[in-house]
């Protein structure tokens, strides 16, 4: 066990008192600056620590004492100094989840704005649009040297950039969308929004001036509503040209400073969640009528493959454009972020071993094989048949090698077993795999369940996926563009409980160890981005799932409160020696404070 104390403040009421050591994580205590005798008098009340802080006038910090189990002494001493020089450590976010001001720049309408208005939405989200300087300061204080975020397509190419600024945005929206029925947000013909360009220029410049490299994602699931209305968004091949136009605006306006571009975030999730009723529902919420009652229409046996096909073609077009016109002078790199779980066979049978490999091919290979080999995996072509679109020889040539790096998002792992039953009358991308997934084998979970849903803490799967990528895909450069875990905090619970994200600390420690192990085996991992900096809008789950290192108080002005994991990361990033050799962190070298205490 390693014990380290985080005490990020100076305080008046208890000067000279020693922080308490030895409070175990299992007791789930948020400790305060007080003596053991004083805490003992309160019998370590689960929810009494805020009162103790008030009693001892500790107003400006969230001090923690933490015992972390480690599988080995080497694991316990892991910190950023053990990674290669110039390794990127950052956090990640997306535009609609954090900062999509609905009326700030006229018709910034994404498909989400139309579909979730009656429920929670990302119109304000955590207001990073107005508070990005505050968020950058948090990241800088924690020690990150990179930040991954996305541009909002319809912020840069709204429907009204060429209209006089005196015209009311609300009037334009009501008139065109309700009377005329025309919203062309997303098309270059609508003009480039100067306010949007200015915002991203300010964000990028501020990141660079604070020592952080911007990693920009062009598309993170917020299709402009105008393109949905005009031709069905990614259901139409027309999207390829419009996406290329949008990408060129981004390269031209920001490429002198942005050196890492990501075309698409998780095309698998967008196609499965948006067009097949997947576990994470994504706008436009389409799927076959027999799957979900609230479907907006669709066909789960064809549309996921069509939209994936068009994402890949749009990716290839953007990469080709960048290489032909911008890369030589801007000296940047470009790639795509794919997601995959790791899949293990449920049994030792050959059928289950093949099912596990099939699961990887249908999730990961679906998008990796085309950019490496110019075509889909053979198993997909065999199982799906004519429902899987085909690439022309020209398209295949554009796709092959259309990356400088691979972005990899990993969260969890599952067991796979063979399940040959298939109903041809109800085709779906999930049943096309002819397998079943399970989170347990012989009554034992694949890893500790984190939160209340689908994430299981299985870092070994992360290492195996990295090694698989190196072996199967010719040893590419990899950035871990997302890795993290959520908790489902009851809003009625005290904030202190949400700040004690012990399971997240354990998750990050294990998964960073997995990355380190993969690097030692020769995998070319160049960076790691935690998902996410802030609790934010988690798509169809709204604000009920919290992935952030920083807690957002949605009831009190979106105040930012760093969690235990934020302090852990700061220690991991700032220390150049083993943790056990630097237990007590003073206010001089740990300044991340919660000013609301």
Strand content: 15-25%
Mean pLDDT, all residues: 80
Total helical segments: 21
The CATH superfamily is known as Glycosidases
User: Could you say what the CATH architecture is?
Assistant: Alpha-Beta Barrel
How much helix is in the residues? 25-40%
How far the N terminus sits from the C terminus, by CA atoms, comes to: 30 Å
CATH top level assignment = Alpha Beta
The chain-level structural class is alpha/beta
**Strand order, largest beta sheet:** 3-4-5-6-7-9-16-17
Query: Mind telling me the C-alpha Rg?
Result: 24 Å
Number of strands: 20
CATH topology: TIM Barrel
Poorly predicted spans:
1-75, 100-108, 112-124, 165-183, 577-597
Q: What best-fitting shape do the alpha-carbon axes yield?
A: globular
How many separate structural domains? 1
Major β-sheet annotation: 8 strands, parallel, barrel
GO molecular function, one term: beta-glucosidase activity
InterPro entries: GH, Glyco_hydro_1
Family: Belongs to the glycosyl hydrolase 1 family.
Organism: Linum tenue
Describe the protein.
- The chain has one domain: TIM Barrel (Alpha-Beta Barrel), CATH 3.20.20.80.
- The longest helix has 24 residues.
- By secondary structure, it is an alpha/beta fold.
- The two termini are 30 Å apart.
Any descriptors?
alpha/beta; 20 strands; 597 residues; 21 helices; 8-stranded parallel β-barrel; disordered N terminus; disordered C terminus; 3-stranded mixed sheet; TIM Barrel
């Amino acid at each position: 066990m390693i014990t380290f104390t985080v005490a990020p403040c100076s305080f008046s009421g208890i000067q000279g008192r020693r922080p308490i050591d030895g409070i175990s994580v299992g007791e789930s205590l948020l400790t305060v600056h007080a003596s053991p005798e004083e805490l003992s008098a309160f019998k370590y009340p689960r929810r009494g620590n805020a009162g103790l802080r008030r009693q001892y006038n500790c107003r400006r910090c969230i001090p923690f004492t933490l015992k972390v189990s480690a599988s080995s002494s080497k694991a316990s001493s892991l910190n950023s100094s053990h990674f290669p020089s110039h390794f990127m450590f950052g956090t990640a976010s997306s535009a609609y989840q954090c900062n999509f001001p609905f009326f700030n720049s006229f018709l910034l309408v994404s498909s989400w704005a139309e579909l979730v208005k009656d429920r929670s939405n990302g119109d304000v989200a955590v207001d990073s649009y107005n508070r990005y300087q505050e968020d950058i300061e948090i990241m800088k204080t924690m020690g990150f040297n990179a930040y991954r975020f996305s541009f909002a397509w319809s912020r840069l190419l709204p429907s009204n950039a060429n209209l006089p600024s005196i015209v009311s945005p609300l009037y334009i929206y009501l008139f065109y969308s309700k009377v005329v029925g025309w919203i062309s947000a997303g098309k270059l013909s609508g003009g480039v929004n100067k306010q949007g360009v200015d915002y991203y220029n300010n964000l990028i410049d501020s990141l660079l001036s604070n020592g952080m490299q911007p990693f920009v994602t062009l598309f993170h699931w917020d299709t402009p509503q105008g393109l949905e209305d005009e031709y069905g968004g990614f259901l139409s091949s027309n999207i390829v040209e419009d996406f290329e136009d949008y990408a060129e605006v981004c390269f031209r306006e920001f490429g002198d400073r942005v050196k890492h571009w990501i075309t698409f975030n998780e095309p698998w999730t967008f196609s499965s969640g948006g067009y097949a009723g997947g576990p994470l529902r994504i706008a436009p919420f389409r799927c076959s009528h027999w799957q979900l009652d609230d479907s907006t229409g669709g066909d789960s046996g064809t549309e996921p493959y069509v939209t994936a096909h068009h994402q890949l073609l749009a990716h290839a077009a953007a990469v080709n454009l960048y290489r032909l016109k911008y890369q030589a002078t801007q000296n940047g790199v470009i790639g795509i972020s794919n997601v995959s779980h790791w899949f293990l066979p449920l049994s030792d049978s050959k059928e289950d071993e093949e099912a596990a490999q099939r699961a990887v091919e249908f999730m990961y290979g679906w998008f990796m094989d085309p950019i490496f080999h110019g075509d889909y995996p053979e198993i997909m072509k065999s199982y799906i048949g004519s429902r899987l679109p085909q690439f022309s020889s020209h398209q295949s040539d554009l796709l092959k090698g259309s990356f400088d790096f691979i972005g990899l998002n990993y969260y969890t792992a599952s067991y796979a077993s063979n399940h040959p039953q298939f109903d041809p009358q109800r085709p779906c991308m999930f049943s096309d795999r002819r397998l079943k997934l399970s989170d347990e084998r012989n009554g034992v979970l694949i890893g500790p369940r984190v939160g209340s849903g689908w994430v299981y803490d299985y870092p070994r799967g992360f290492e195996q996926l990295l090694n698989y990528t190196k072996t199967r895909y010719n040893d590419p450069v990899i950035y871990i563009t997302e890795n993290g875990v959520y908790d489902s905090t009851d809003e009625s619970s005290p904030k202190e409980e949400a700040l004690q994200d012990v399971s997240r600390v354990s998750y990050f420690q294990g998964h960073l160890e997995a990355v380190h192990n993969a690097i030692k085996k020769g995998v070319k991992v160049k960076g790691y981005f935690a998902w996410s900096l802030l609790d934010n809008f988690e798509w169809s789950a709204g604000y009920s799932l919290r992935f952030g290192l920083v807690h957002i108080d949605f009831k009190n002005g979106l105040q930012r409160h760093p969690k235990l994991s934020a302090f852990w990361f700061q220690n991991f990033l700032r220390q150049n020696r083993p943790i056990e050799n630097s237990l007590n962190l003073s206010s001089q070298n740990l300044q991340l404070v919660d000013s609301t205490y």
